[in-house]
């Protein structure tokens, strides 16, 4: 990671937000994850469309990047560093650490499931369908279940998930054009 990118512990992040610091909180998760729960005042810039939206992030204020666990925030930090941003911080542990610490969470009104839950549902459904088709129609359908299982193993090993990336682009997981989020932290 570049020397321009710093790591920030969750308690330090909380202190910065409650101290009325002039910083930006950028959440790089996907819309459905952000809508389910977020840090108050965070701005959504999903990693899947980060390249298109990154230049809208203010270069003159510290940028705190947040995701579910810190992995996607690290990727976004590298991109900002390559674009010349000089004060970028990755919040260690992401939303998982924020919630585990008992800090306040803002929840959206959407009834869309979080992306991880959608992946479990779709993967489980495809495995079940493959098994049933193999049993009742033709044994070759067992390959559908095997393919999904192999995809889940690959996702775990590489910490990337093609199914999640595909589901994130579905219409129900997209931010409505009228939705907007403030960038400055408030009431944290």
Placed side by side, the strands forming the largest sheet appear as 1-5-4-2-3
SS elements, strand count:
5
CATH class type of the largest domain: Alpha Beta
- Broad shape: elongated
Radius of gyration: 19 Å
Average pLDDT number: 88
Order of helices and strands: EHEHEHEHEHHHH
What share of the residues does DSSP label as strand, in percent? 5-15%
Full CATH superfamily name of the largest domain: Rhodanese-like domain
Poorly predicted ranges: 178-188
Span of the ends, CA to CA: 29 Å
CATH architecture of the largest domain: 3-Layer(aba) Sandwich
Which structural class is indicated by helix and strand composition? alpha/beta
Q: Percent of residues in helical segments?
A: 40-55%
Largest sheet, strands/sense/barrel: 5 strands, parallel
Which fold name is given in CATH as the topology of the largest domain?
Oxidized Rhodanese, domain 1
Number of domains: 2
Helix count equals 8
């Amino acid at each position: 990671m570049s020397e321009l990118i710093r790591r920030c512990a969750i308690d330090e992040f909380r202190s910065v937000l409650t101290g009325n610091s002039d910083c930006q909180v950028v959440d790089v998760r996907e819309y459905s994850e952000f809508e389910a729960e977020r840090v108050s005042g965070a701005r959504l810039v999903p990693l899947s469309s980060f390249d298109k939206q990154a230049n809208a992030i203010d270069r003159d204020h510290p940028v705190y990047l947040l995701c579910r666990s810190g992995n996607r925030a690290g990727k976004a930090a590298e991109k900002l560093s390559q674009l010349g941003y000089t004060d970028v911080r990755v919040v260690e542990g992401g939303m998982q650490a924020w919630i585990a610490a008992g800090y306040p969470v803002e929840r959206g009104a959407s009834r869309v499931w979080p992306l991880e839950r959608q992946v479990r549902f779709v993967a489980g459904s495809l495995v079940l369908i493959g098994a049933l088709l193999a049993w009742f129609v033709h044994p070759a359908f067992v390959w559908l279940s095997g393919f999904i299982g192999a995809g889940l193993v690959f996702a775990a090993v590489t910490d990337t998930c093609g199914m999640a990336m595909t589901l994130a682009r579905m219409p129900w997981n997209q931010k409505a054009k009228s939705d907007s989020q403030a960038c400055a932290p408030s009431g944290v």
